[in-house]
Write a structure and sequence with these properties.
By secondary structure, the chain is mostly beta strands. It has one domain: Neuraminidase (6 Propeller). Helix content is 0%, strand content 48%. Strand 23 and strand 24 form a beta hairpin. It is globular. The model has no long low-confidence stretch (mean pLDDT 96).
Length: 306
């Protein structure tokens, strides 16, 4: 049974006590989304950008509480990250592509097809220190017109891809997921974690995060289940510098130790879709949950680059 120390935290393992600030309350920063997703912190600009998929817009929050439109229309953008040059990389459901926003604001298409056929609907994305871009491609954005445009998938499988933007080479590194979703590297980039959220539409389907060994920065091997989510599904997640995985779930944020054990939860009143660490000390956890953007200070430090 968890040890409840407040209305916000549940402690399942003493290791979680060192990762939280019990006196830090949960703050609702914004509450006018339809489905909040894809938060990414811009340290140099001191702001957070995230997606509001059904409203086809991206929003910007700055300390002090001001929220403004970053981009609209957004092509039903979902997951976002930054590359090592600080450029925004986004997954777009509407156009079924991965794009990069250049410093001058222009948009570069990085990937929109594989083996001569359109991608399904790129969902979430991470960038490795070598500049390669890794993203998932489930079918959520083409299942209906709510978060994209309804269409039949052209790809026979729902893949995890590795893109080398220097050469344009795109490779499917895993092809046996039901619905691959969030993904994140371990702090040393020797492992890649990938969520399978297929239980969102089939209760008998996976609701777990798998972990793979990264070989030569190009291939994934030794895949196995890292953890299962007991409430809801895993969607987006992030790692902290100690290798703990903080993942979205139906009842909040679940924190898993590097050994795969559930050590604690942060309870959120809405279903969580995604999250990211940010702030000047990388100790603020920003949480995109259904209609709202939340924040809670932690004692953990997120893996954040740049």
């Amino acid at each position: 049974m968890p040890n409840d120390i407040s209305s916000v935290y549940e402690i399942y393992d003493t290791r979680f006590r060192n990762l939280i600030v019990p006196s830090a309350g949960l703050e609702e920063l914004y509450s006018d989304c339809r489905w909040a997703e894809g938060p990414v912190w811009f340290a140099d600009a001191g702001c957070l950008i995230w997606s509001d998929i059904p409203n086809e817009r991206m929003l910007r929050w700055v300390p002090g509480g001001n929220v403004s439109i970053f981009r609209a229309p957004s092509n039903f953008a979902n997951g976002n990250t930054r590359d090592r040059q600080g450029r925004l990389v986004s997954c777009e459901h509407g156009t079924r592509r991965v794009t990069r926003t250049e410093i001058d604001g222009s948009i570069t298409v990085l990937a929109d097809g594989y083996k001569g056929k359109r991608l399904n609907s790129p969902n979430d994305v991470v960038v490795r220190s070598d500049g390669t871009i890794w993203f998932t491609d489930p079918t959520y954005g083409i299942l209906s017109n709510y978060e994209g445009y309804k269409a039949e998938p052209e790809q026979p499988t729902r893949n995890v891809y590795r893109l080398d933007p220097a050469t344009g080479e795109l490779d499917a590194v895993v092809d046996d997921f039901r619905q691959p979703n969030g993904l994140a590297f371990s702090p040393d980039e020797t492992k890649l974690y990938v969520a399978d959220s297929a239980a969102s539409h089939d209760v008998s389907a996976p609701r777990h995060i798998r972990v793979f060994d990264v070989v030569d920065g190009k291939k994934l091997t030794n895949g196995k289940v890292f953890c299962n989510i007991d409430t809801g599904i895993p969607d987006g997640f992030r790692a902290d510098v100690d290798g703990n995985i903080w993942t979205s779930a139906g009842d909040g944020v679940h924190c898993f130790a590097p050994d795969g054990s559930l050590i604690g939860k942060i309870k959120i009143p809405q279903t969580v879709a995604n999250l990211t660490f940010g702030g000047p000390k990388r100790n603020q956890l920003f949480i995109a949950a259904t209609r709202s953007l939340y924040r809670v200070y932690t004692a953990a430090t997120g893996v954040q680059a740049p």
